[in-house]
Amino acid sequence: MLIYTLLPFSIKNTETLIYNYIKFFKLLLLNKLFILIPNSIKFNKGFINFYIKKIKFNTNNIDLKYISYKSFLNPFYQISLPVKINILNNNKFNFNFKLFKFPKIDLEGNIICNGLKKIFISKIKRDSGLYFSKLKQKNSKISRASIIFNNNLFIIDLNYKNIIISDLVNKIEINFIIFLHYLGITNFDIIKYSKYGTSIFLKNLLKFNLKEYKLFKYQHFNYLHKLKLFSFYFGKISYNYNFISNLETNKILITFKNKWNLDNKFGFQIKNIFIYLYKDLINILDYLIDLKFNKKSIVDIDNFTNKTIETLPDLILNQLSIIIEKRLVFLITNINKLNRYSNIQFINFINNKKFIFNFKEQFNINPLIQYSDQINSLSEIMHKFKWIKSNKLHIQDINLRDIKSSEIGKLCLINTSEGLNSGLIVYLPQNSLIINNEILTPFNSQNNKKIKLLNFKSISSLNQEKKKIILTKNLIRKNKYFSTLNTIILYKNYLEKSNNSNLILFSEKELFSFAENLIPFIFHNDPTRSLMGAKMQMQSLPLIYNQKALISTETEQILSRKNNNIYSLQEGIIVFVSSYKIIVRDLLNREISYYLPNYKFSNQKTLINYIPIVWVGERVNLGQLLANSQELKDNEFSIGTNCFVMYGSYKGYEFEDALIINKQLIENNIFSSLHMDCYEISLGYNLKNFSEIITSKIPKYNKFIKRNLDTFGIIKESSKVLDKDLLCGKIKFYNLTLKQESLGYFLFNLFGYKIRHIKDTSILISLGNYGRVAKIEINSIPQTIKNLNLYLKLKIFIIKQRILEIGDKLCGRHGNKGVISHIANSIDLPYTKDSISPDIITTSLGVPSRMNVGQLYETLFGLSCNYLDKRLLIKNNLNTKLGSNYLKSLLYFYLKELNFYKGISSFNSYNFGKTNFFDGKTGKKIKGSILFGISFYTKLIHMVKDKIHYRTIGPYSIVTQQPIKSRSKQGGQRFGEMEVWALEAFGAAYNLKELFTLKSDNIKGRLNLQEYLLYNFSIKNVILSESFNLIIKELKSLALNIEALILI
């Protein structure tokens, strides 16, 4: 069942972010301000009134048409509070007191900071509630109950003779039984409502606490103060009625969610939100006694029922109290300036933007607010799916990284970050609902024979533990051990067999995220390769000429619905269509213009382009698609192309998963992609020092370099630029110094020549960034930036077309990635009887070693679909629904159909799936049969043009005296093990010797070489390096006498 036809909002996380922001405006922010801001404040000469009910929200309207990474664009919301100042001399005036600003969020769920889109990564943190544990202190076992709420932590410890409650925030502790007595709970009530009321242990505990009353007599006031502090947090108790009389104080045991969790621990059902407090406290006492005598086990503290979600509004609310306090203190401390300033001057000073707190700086520093991953629409959606489990990354706690049964259906089982943060950075599954900061999972109940389409249910992690979950409908066959058909179920961390019909079913949509559900036959792959395939699809580039995959899942259509496409807002007829605008005339004879946001570049410098899919005269309905992005085709997510793949060898170029590609892929621009660069040119001036102008009359450059410049010295639009072409002719004039002025007067008097100090600062296109100029923007600098001595700014956008090169990466949907090692001519490649040459040749050793059986299924099904002229929509759990051998039988049927009905005889009937090939050079038949088919391949963003880097001799490490590694630290020619293999393959012995000695840790050799180059000293051939000396010393530490004899 395609659940998104019923739940369009469940494509998290954009709607959830917008909903949380709206809720933040309407409820959370106003409630917080009502608590933090008083109605009035007195000062020496009068008082200040705050009208909180009339609070105002202001915003700035900014056009988001063309922005770049240096833009000053920061849309925001501003909170203004109406204030009335009353002074004793009857001087009264009102003004709007600006409290703070926080960034605006757009309809896509993005935050815009400095002109770039950012995304907030939600955090899974421990929820407020009640937690139990056992520990040892000073050879005694202690049962502990921890109560967490509103940044407060209470601990109740039970040892063999005493029970104590502690407040770790205020660092106070008292006896728990005395605290119960203070709340009005007598010993008779404890014995009556406790299940251990008749036990000797509880009676001895109550007797022992009689001694505490002696301390209470001597320390009466101190003890009474502590009791009042504790009673404030737990609620005041009316002694006549024994119920909570103050419901507005902070109480952990009254909220519905925590009460539900608490009652599940105690074993009784909740009937009302209003529950007697003393029952909860006595139940905590009973649970501690159960733990002491090992009658109950401790629930995992990292269970998902104990988790909640921290969103972007929570980040703002956590710092709101500090911000409001600073602003109110600032207002009171500067109120005396009313005597010196007028009212308008005072308001301008108080509301100066320098003193207003802006979240912009914090949003730029916070690691949870990241630049949006805009490589393709899948990566952007998955970036919003990304969640973090812990504040501390690189944590070594294995329990936190593991997948628990309570996380099934709440977090993706496969998709996580690779490396040190594996298991700490997770993703949401495809079908997930977020309601009140809690993740709910939709499911199909299996107790009814008929499943109604509009009757779906969702389940929380707490209720999920009480249910029996079916992950698949796989039935165990009848044999001597199983007399009936049984189903494998998951119940309370155990796998069981059951024939009960009262079960819930989780499909792959509830278990995996979008990226995993794009992989066909995922259940036939190793999970690590499926993870790699999901990551690679998020790093794939949109192509100019893309194709729909022959083997499809139902997720491609769902992704197209969440893409930022352009839909019709009214029913009407198309009047005008172009690459930048679509005009629709509606039923009321109104013209509605839709502008396509073309020629924009993403955060990863890929081109964002929209293609119209309607024509003039077409009648469109409300909500019909008008234009889609370049990674969509026929409203379906398709970011790659179908290629003929041969699993074999070709001259050894397929070593280590390398790929050999057909030259026709390059000639037909199959894997070509578009990228965009932006060159920003600023013109400045300073009357005392310099001034800058643009011109085309620069004699330094020849006519060929200046061929595309206009009369003003700026490159023309739509012109093609090559390496080292001139983009803008720019000259900087410096004012003459005193010495230059005297020389200038002398030359002017002699020859009539006026001296000038000129510097050429023209902008040339960098090496390898040739392309075509898409557009040019000329902007005058606004008044706010004129302080930087700038008066004009140019932006030149250049579109580049990247074709395939040796060193680029291609990848399939199953994690089968490889680097292009050789580009072969199509006439030299092997071919079939139908004269079909493979587009890609890859090694066959990478399939069985990585257990990618799904890769073979896609290859063979894709080949049959190509000949039969059809596409297959493959469900990932076909075998589980229709039998364990259904997929295999279906594949055999399609291959047989090719032989009998299509007349294709290139398939071996004795070895299904294999094809006979002929050598492209000799024409002879190749021995044996080779696996040949069609797979869906994509091009990754890791291109060789961006990776190639020329290194000189860089700095050396102080400790090891070897070249520093990493490109960011300007590392030198540091050769590792794999680089040495590459030089050994070419037999470069002298280069290896130089790299290992003179360019490494041979200190004396480096000095000797320097003396030879500078002073023509003789070179000493035998100088030992420091690493060799280290090996000698380590051998000597093993009591081995090593002596080096140098023979001359």
From TrEMBL:
GO terms for cellular component: apicoplast; DNA-directed RNA polymerase complex. Its EC number is 2.7.7.6. One of its GO terms (molecular function) is DNA-directed RNA polymerase activity. InterPro entries: DNA-dir_RNA_pol_bsu_ext_1_sf, DNA-dir_RNA_pol_su2, DNA-dir_RNAP_su2_dom, DNA-dir_RNAP_su2_hyb_sf, RNA_pol_bsu_CS, RNA_pol_Rpb2_2_sf, RNA_pol_Rpb2_3, RNA_pol_Rpb2_7. It catalyses: RNA(n) + a ribonucleoside 5'-triphosphate = RNA(n+1) + diphosphate. Pfam families: RNA_pol_Rpb2_3, RNA_pol_Rpb2_6, RNA_pol_Rpb2_7. Residues 370-430, 971-1044 form the RNA polymerase Rpb2 domain. It comes from the Eukaryota. The keyword Secreted does not apply. In plastids the minimal PEP RNA polymerase catalytic core is composed of four subunits: alpha, beta, beta', and beta''. When a (nuclear-encoded) sigma factor is associated with the core the holoenzyme is formed, which can initiate transcription. This is DNA-directed RNA polymerase subunit beta.
